[in-house]
Write a structure and sequence with these properties.
The chain contains six helices and three strands. By secondary structure, it is of the alpha+beta class. The chain folds into two domains: 117 residues, no CATH class; 53 residues. It has a three-stranded antiparallel sheet with strand order 1-3-2, covered by helices on one side. A hairpin with a 4-residue loop joins strand 2 and strand 3.
Length: 205
């Protein structure tokens, strides 16, 4: 059996693991599952059909650029979804154009899947958040804004990017990056079971 067949099978296995084993269990977005599978298989098919035409490297870069522009301009994607999208493209190109060392190509595919699995794990940097907020007060002073956000969020604010301050309507649009602080442990006295009081005596009439 040709080594290319192993690469095709490895690509399908890798995109299956990436889509159904990593992405969908974490994010539950069905439309992007179809997009990732379609992009990967489409790139694989085109790469295989044109691999023998002598334009392997140029074809790979061209497909990577053109498809990314079309996809990224069609709808807004979160940054983690962009990473999955480019990984689906890369897996298809590796499977279709991987005419070199088969073990190296398989190792690169496994590395892509492993990196996305680890980098997007819920336990990695789980206390860090990013949020765009609209405040009902105008804060021209960044220090005062940071203190207000820390009290409002109950977290440590690492970065504040003011998008708009409206002094007329008294609002502030801000992009805040913050870290959730661990909840304080209850004191030993708070852990004691509440004592049950005596039942009140019946009222005699």
């Amino acid at each position: 059996m040709s080594s290319s067949v192993y690469l095709y099978a490895a690509d399908l296995l890798a995109i299956g693991l990436l889509t159904f084993g990593v992405y969908f269990p974490r994010h539950r977005r069905r439309d992007l599952v179809i997009a990732y599978l379609g992009v990967n298989v489409g790139v694989l098919a085109v790469s295989v059909a044109l691999a023998d035409s002598g334009v392997g490297a140029g074809l790979g870069l061209g497909l990577f650029g053109v498809l990314s522009i079309i996809r990224l301009r069609s709808t807004e994607l979160d940054q983690h979804e962009v990473a999955y999208y480019f990984s689906a493209l890369a897996l298809g190109l590796l499977g279709g154009l991987g005419s070199g060392s088969v073990p190296l190509t398989l190792a690169l595919m496994a590395t892509i899947v492993a990196v996305l699995y680890l980098a997007g794990h819920p336990r990695l940097l789980r206390r860090y958040r990013q949020q765009v907020m609209v405040l009902d007060s105008a804060f021209p002073d960044e220090q005062g804004l940071t203190a207000h956000l820390e009290g409002l969020l109950g977290a440590r604010v690492h970065q504040v990017r003011v998008q708009r301050v409206d002094l007329v309507n008294d609002t502030t649009w801000v992009d805040v990056r913050f870290e959730l602080t661990p909840a304080p442990r209850p004191a030993p006295s708070d852990l004691r079971a509440p004592t049950l009081g005596r039942r009140p005596a019946p009222v005699q009439r």
